[in-house]
């Protein structure tokens, strides 16, 4: 056979072979090119391709199809190509050189004031302590700031930056007292839910006023010391804002108290226990003092 690419004679190795090797096939059909930007050889994948990658294509198009100029980096004097829209008074090839130039003695006016000295920081802090914020932040300004805060998208990075900015921050006592005087508590607070809140929120309210449960009022009734987690147990499951209605109990006595007084229905292991009880009768004493017998155990449950 005669090679279609270079017109030399060769012996075919398979039916339908038209080129003597793969390089001849690529150079003839795929058309191997040299990137005009970086000089790298590549095989183009579409008919109008000129460069090996998008990055080289962007640079090549900017130099040949748009109008830009070459400028030198202010830090290393490296020539860099800038479009008219990207051209600035101070041009740098990378962010590291920008930061290095700002810190160096060569910088006379670029970015001055971006880093304060300890004396300037102390001066600014003292000025803010004596500032009357009622005059600086008017009602219109506060509404504008609140609207901007509501529309802000709090990403994980933004939350972490806000948390780091408040670490170690100490407010003056005068400002703390002012916050206490203008704070709204109880029914005056817009977040106040009264007694119509979830059990979790009510238990959090009890913990804030009485602290965490550390003991069990029924300890010793079972003959063994209480272990495990301690919780606040409500007397009737109405969850009113009455601190006397909450007692400290361990998890086991808390569940037994609710079962004995009919505050919860037997479930899981407790339900199987009552089904197996048979002749064993256990009385349920309600909050009103009325003694009720449990219904006859359902032995067919098992």
Please write out the topology:
Blueprint: H1 22-30, E1 32-34, E2 41-43, H2 54-65, E3 68-72, E4 79-83, H3 95-103, H4 118-129, H5 133-136, H6 139-151, H7 156-166, H8 173-182, H9 199-210, E5 230-234, E6 246-250, H10 251-260, H11 269-276, E7 283-285, E8 291-293
Question: Could you describe the 3D structure shown?
Answer:
The chain is an alpha+beta fold. Among the domains are: 67-115, no CATH class; 120-169, no CATH class; 199-301, no CATH class. The protein is built from eleven helices and eight strands. The chain has helices spanning 22-30, 54-65, 95-103, 118-129, 133-136, 139-151, 156-166, 173-182, 199-210, 251-260, 269-276; strands spanning 32-34, 41-43, 68-72, 79-83, 230-234, 246-250, 283-285, 291-293. The chain has a two-stranded antiparallel sheet. It has a two-stranded antiparallel sheet with strand order 3-4. β3 (68-72) and β4 (79-83) form a beta hairpin. The longest helix has 13 residues, at 139-151. The N and C termini lie far apart (87 Å).
